[in-house]
TrEMBL record:
Protein's recorded name: Lactonase family protein
Species this protein is from: Pelagicoccus enzymogenes
Pfam families recorded: Lactonase
Claim: Signal is one of the keywords in the record: yes
InterPro entries referenced in this protein's UniProt entry, alphabetically: Cycloisomerase_2, Haem_d1_sf, Lactonase_7-beta_prop, WD40/YVTN_repeat-like_dom_sf
GO molecular function, one term: 6-phosphogluconolactonase activity
Keyword terms, alphabetized: Carbohydrate metabolism, Glucose metabolism, Signal
Length: 365
């Protein structure tokens, strides 16, 4: 474990005091977007139902104010972005709009004001920023942000943006680039063509940063290092949009030369006290506790994910359950979260679904 100088931080407690009886899960998998209900008392998942059919989609996002769900989108005609709205049939969604771009499989983020949609395109080395209409539909007004550079590892032959998010009341856009070992930070105005690069911050060579958990109301951010298997802790100065490294901590006990091992998702528990990340190949969920004064992490446990290739997971809004998607074992499983320690206990709740790649706990639509 390597530490750099600590900073004080505060965390907003996000857990609702009112436990939900059921919570809607949205899942991107082969064939489109699926819907399942999580029983908040038992942790049981209902059999997933196809809500919107298309060839495939890799990530989901939701409008902050409207009943509109966004998905990366691919069909016989090409790839891009889709907005989905309730169809009138219970649990079903219909296409509201589709915007084609040159590639699909993007990680998505919607601005807090609901005016912009951003997508990170790993294969193409670009981010797209698209304007949204008043009803949430995706417009044809967009800009293409090309990133450049490389790193020492085999997947780092080019820039590979893997994650984006808006910040500072939508005036900033952060893009985590696996290929260049950097976070690219852009300034954002009211339109898509207003976006301009401000600065970049570098990770240790070969980190392969994948996803970030930017904690609302705090000055701490956590990034999963897909290639070197580290979780990276940063002090985040929202005013300037700059990141300063605090800590690099490995998810595994010993170095593993097997290149089939990699990190995927990373999330902070709604109470801000625990951080979770997934290790593909070893098929683990790793839990860390967060020091409330410094934001630094301490290992709590490494738990068998009980799925093969945990591509994605989510923590329920209540903070009681963690749902993990096994892309290669074609299933989702549920763990109960100990509120006092953050430790995970497996349940018998399991559903089958072909190649799930994104699961989100939004009790909406």
């Amino acid at each position: 474990m390597k530490y750099l100088s600590p900073f004080l931080f505060t965390v907003s407690v996000l857990v609702s005091s009112t436990a939900l009886k059921a919570e809607t899960l949205w899942i991107a998998a082969e064939g489109g977007v699926y819907r399942s209900e999580l029983n908040e008392q038992s942790g049981e998942l209902s059999v997933p139902e196809l809500a919107a059919a298309f060839d495939s989609g890799s990530f989901l996002a939701i409008h902050p104010h409207l009943d509109v769900l966004y998905a990366s989108y691919r069909d016989d005609s090409g790839a891009g972005y889709a907005s989905l709205v309730p169809s009138g049939d219970a649990g079903r969604l219909q296409l509201q709009s589709v915007q084609r771009v040159s590639s699909g499989n993007a990680h998505l983020s919607v601005s807090e004001n609901g005016r912009l949609l951003a997508g990170a395109h790993y294969g193409e080395g670009v981010n797209y920023v698209l304007e949204l209409e008043a009803d949430g539909a995706i417009s044809d007004r967009w800009t293409r942000l090309v990133q450049s550079g490389s790193g020492p590892e085999r997947p780092q032959t080019q820039a590979r943006p893997h994650w984006v998010t808006f910040a500072k009341k939508d005036s900033l856009l952060h893009s985590v680039d696996l290929g260049t070992d950097e976070i690219w930070t852009y300034g954002v105005g009211k339109t898509a063509n207003s976006v301009q690069l401000l600065h970049k911050v570098k990770f240790p060579a070969g980190t392969g940063p994948r996803h970030m958990a930017l904690v609302p109301g705090s000055n701490t951010a956590y990034v999963s290092g897909e290639l070197n298997l580290d979780v990276n802790t940063f002090f985040y100065d929202e005013q300037s949009g700059r990141f300063s490294p605090l800590q690099y901590i490995s998810t595994v006990e010993d170095p593993f030369p097997d290149k089939q091992i990699s990190l995927s998702e990373i999330q902070v528990h709604p109470n801000g006290r625990y951080v979770y990340t997934a290790v593909r190949g070893l098929d683990l969920i790793v839990t860390y506790s967060v020091d409330p004064q410094t934001g630094l992490l301490s290992l709590v446990e490494r738990k068998d994910a009980r799925v093969h290739w945990p591509r994605n997971f989510t923590v329920s809004a209540s903070g009681k359950w963690l749902i993990v998607a096994g892309q290669r074992s074609h299933e989702l499983r549920v763990f109960e979260i100990d509120p006092g320690s953050g430790e995970l206990s497996p349940t018998e709740s399991r559903i089958e679904l072909q190649s799930p790649v994104c699961v989100r706990a939004w009790d909406r639509i």
